[in-house]
Amino acid sequence: MKISIERNDRMYTVTVGEEPIVTLWAWTDKEVKEFINQVRRIHGKRNTQDLIVGLWADHSGNNYSGGWNFFYDSKKGGGGDGSRPLEVMALCAGHHCLLMELRTACKEKKVLRDFLHDRKTVVVGVGIDRLAKKLEEENEILIPKTVELRRLAAAQAEQVEDGAEPGKVLKVEKCSIGELGRVVLGEEVDYVRPTKIRWRETYWGPFSNDLVKCSTAEAFLAARIGSKLLKTK
């Protein structure tokens, strides 16, 4: 699956396949509020349906004991190894994505906390239970309504394949977001997370284009998968 990116300061257009997603790298609570207001305007304040939000969060491959690794190793990533705190989070609703650093940006985070705690906000993802727990412990961000996509897909697969021959039931419990996308959305979703990508351009410079593409694509796919699975639930 081709993923391209165009950048204008901290605003990006990331095209996943043929789907353009507008990604904002937010630095302030005001920018987060503007993003949330825009998403709510698009989906409608009186919309009776829940707002499906895809979540991606991770830490870099930096070495806290000394030195710095500019590269992100996805084999060691995937939501943290339990000891390192999450550093960056991406949220995607529809074709709009919010990217923010958890340790330095938006220090109050009240608007973000209220949005994710809203009873109409359903946050979906792969490994969502671990991510939600770490966000609560490290940033006091409580997400009461979460959906683990692999678990939901597995439950629906069992219903569809009830009565099938042993060994023929689709196993999705350990799928990556790309593999799950192919199962749920179709073979045209051919996303594979890069094994290693540059995290930042320089020591304290902007995120690399590759990191923005990865985080946006995975949050977007999570939202797409969640929307389809919850619609057919």
State which percent range the strand residues make up. 15-25%
* H/E series: EEEHEEEEHEHEHHEH
Ends apart, CA distance between termini: 27 Å
Question: Strands of the largest sheet, in order across it?
Answer: 1-2-3-7-6-4-8-9
Low-confidence stretches: 63-69, 161-169
Strands, total number: 10
How would you sum up the global shape? globular
Main β-sheet: number of strands, strand sense, barrel status?
8 strands, mixed
Count of separate DSSP helical elements = 6
Q: What report would you give on this structure?
A:
This protein is an alpha/beta fold and 233 residues long. Helices cover 34% and strands 23% of the residues. The protein contains 6 helices and 10 strands; from the N terminus they run βββαββββαβαβααβα. It has helices at 29-43, 110-117, 128-139, 149-160, 177-185, 209-231; strands at 3-8, 11-16, 19-26, 51-58, 71-73, 88-93, 96-101, 121-125, 146-148, 196-198. The chain has an 8-stranded mixed β-sheet with strand order 1-2-3-7-6-4-8-9, sandwiched between helices. It has a two-stranded antiparallel ribbon with strand order 5-10. Helix 1 packs parallel to helix 2 (110-117) and helix 4 crosses helix 6 (209-231). The longest helix is centred in the last third of the chain and has 23 residues, at 209-231. It is globular.
